[in-house]
Amino acid sequence: MLALSTAGNEAKSPSADASGLSENICQKPRQIEIGARRCRGGAIHLGERDCSLQRRHQKVWGKAVAVLAAAARAKIGATCAKPCRHGISWRRHDRVSVEDGEFYFIEMIRASRVEHPVTEMITDIDLVLEQIPYAAGRTARHAG
Fold first, then answer.
1. Which among 42, 56, 62, 99 is least surrounded, fewest beta carbons within 10 Å?
2. Total domain count for the chain?
């Protein structure tokens, strides 16, 4: 409780507002990256990679596809695809922490990732080629 009080005082000092956000603490998280993209009539998720093997907060190795229960994969995929369906971005890559069947967002990226060839191999969709009609104002070729 002392830590919350101290954090509130630190927040209040420059801004006169002591409110803040708290996050779940994951003791043994797995970091999963999952892609999603908009397509005709909605959005799809593009599979996932387990990127938990890290050194100094940098990914050392990623495994595609991640070892996830089917229900967890479906839930994470649907959640990550939902913003694309509502026009937030054409394509995105989200990082989530997974622990004990629950997941928590770490980061949302609206750009191509260096690992896009792995996603292309898994999905058989050329993600770079798909950007061309979208950039020209047309619908992407694949319906998902």
1. 56
2. 1
